[in-house]
Amino acid sequence: MKKRVFSGIQPTGNLHLGNYLGAIRRWVDAQSQYDNLFCIVDLHAITVPQDPRALRAKSREVVALLFAAGIEPDQSAVFIQSHIGAHAELAWILNCYIPMGWMQRMTQFKEKSQRQKGQVSVGLFDYPALMAADILLYETDLVPVGGDQKQHVELTRDVAQHFNSVYGDVFKLPEPLMGEVGARIMSLDNPTKKMSKSETGKGHALNLLDTPDEIRAKIMSATTDSLREIRFDPDRPAVTNLLTIYELFSGLSRTAIEQRFAGKGYAELKQELADVVIEHLKPLQARYRVLADDPSHLDHLLTEGASRVQPIAEKTVTRVKVAIGLG
Ligand code: TYM
After folding, report:
1. What percent of the chain has pLDDT over 70?
2. Does the annotation mark 110 as catalytic?
3. What is the residue range of 225's domain?
């Protein structure tokens, strides 16, 4: 039996290199080893205001991008969270077992609620309970995510352990799975901030659907420092971020990269980085255009994905209800 992988992605903003290098590419590269479920988490998206038409269109865009990036329908089920009612149902149940104090510690809530103009919804606060439901519904072994989601996966483990200690062996305990390199890709214009879908500044993120000209322009104007030597150094986050992206796309070792750029300037590093990023994204973008032009094929893949996962989710909800005395 293969281990089960579950991961999710929000259909909001533009997918960027952080999403790709921290999550999607790793899902693709490891998919033959595992039984994979990938979920477009539209119920998470509505924790902040969304335009209904844009949200539906974004969900399809993300699905097309996942397949364009190399997710294979015969190895991975891709589905939309709101198509499976059990996510909301289990989230409600878990709510009743999660102490407020655990939620109050979540750093992502603190950051997101500060950014939110106007009212902060209860849903935004409760976001991690829904994420725990996503993961626990499918008896997940491994959750491949970027570093920003680690705390949420740990909360999921805590909830599962707490629940199991009261009701017996109801949930499987999942493990977060993070890349040694690329778990936190930083912004191009401010290397102290992570690259994020919710930042809209033009030079902030490299998006998967950016044109070659946009990619080159953003990289050429990326922030650097006033030192000359090009090397990996945690005290120099801007150049280290550019080198990390180069490392992940070129496949070269850190030593080989430092040798390659010895005695060269930032302009050369940036030109070469733009070349590898553009080359890598070209086939993905071509496949994306073909997939996006065939919405009925995408809907067919989504229906197939949902019908594969639905029985697993229903079985878990039934087990939970029996355990706690519902019905
Ligand atoms: P989301 O949509 O923000 O991001 C999707 C994936 O991309 C990773 N990521 C990054 N990795 C490296 N560097 C970055 N700058 C960067 N930015 C984003 C994220 O860590 C994530 O793996 N809450 C989740 C979605 C979710 C989920 C789940 C994930 C809902 N339910 C269950 C796993 C399991 C989120 O908002 O991801």
Report:
1. 100
2. no
3. 212-289
